[in-house]
């Protein structure tokens, strides 16, 4: 958790320091509203990812409201204070803010390849199938890193590694992500 917070602070600093590139000041060109759709997965879990945000294509950074959710119920075991273990079928949802910075521009054919770093932060909550009991509402920070390819002038394809701690030792914290960002409108 501490490493995720440190990465998030470093990312926010990088975004604020990147407001100028060389001697050129960022102007209104290249500012877009975007929509992202993606997935995060490992060998034991799967999440869909949707977000709506703001892209600055000149400075190559983005910030968005993000929702990640598990589309199915997953069997989880929770240890009680008395030593007994309860087993539930849980559905999780993560609601938060994501910030992302893309670095280096490498032309690859008609596309552009970039490295990216980012972090998501917010709250995670869930429910259990067949019960009125709900999962505890907890804060989360999820750093990620990867690469992005432009899809013409309408968006980009992203993939990489994400660290997501769901506070469950039986579910691995390491995930792969794939996503597509669509630019909706210019500001």
Annotation keywords:
187 residues, mainly beta, Porin, eight-stranded antiparallel beta barrel, two-stranded antiparallel ribbon
**Structural Rg:** 18 Å
Helix content percent band: under 10%
pLDDT under 50 segments (min length 5)? 15-28
Q: What count of helical segments does DSSP give?
A: 1
Mean pLDDT across all residues, rounded?
Answer: 85
Element-level helix/strand string: HEEEEEEEEEEE
Structural class: mainly beta
CATH fold-level topology: Porin
Order of strands across the main sheet:
3-4-5-7-8-9-10-11
How much of the sequence lies in strands comes to over 45%
Count of discrete structural domains: 1
Q: What is the assembly state of the chains in this entry?
A: single chain
Largest sheet: 8 strands, antiparallel, barrel
- Beta-strand segment tally: 11
The CATH architecture can be named as Beta Barrel
CATH class type? Mainly Beta
Distance from N terminus to C terminus (CA atoms, Å) equals 35 Å
Q: Quick one: overall form?
A: elongated
Structure report:
By secondary structure, the protein is mainly beta. It has one domain (2-186): Porin. Helices cover 9% and strands 65% of the residues. It has one helix at residues 2-17; strands spanning 20-21, 24-25, 31-41, 46-56, 61-69, 74-79, 85-108, 111-128, 134-150, 155-163, 174-186. It has an eight-stranded antiparallel barrel. β9 and β10 form a beta hairpin. It is elongated, with a radius of gyration of 18 Å. Residues 15-28 have low confidence and may be disordered.
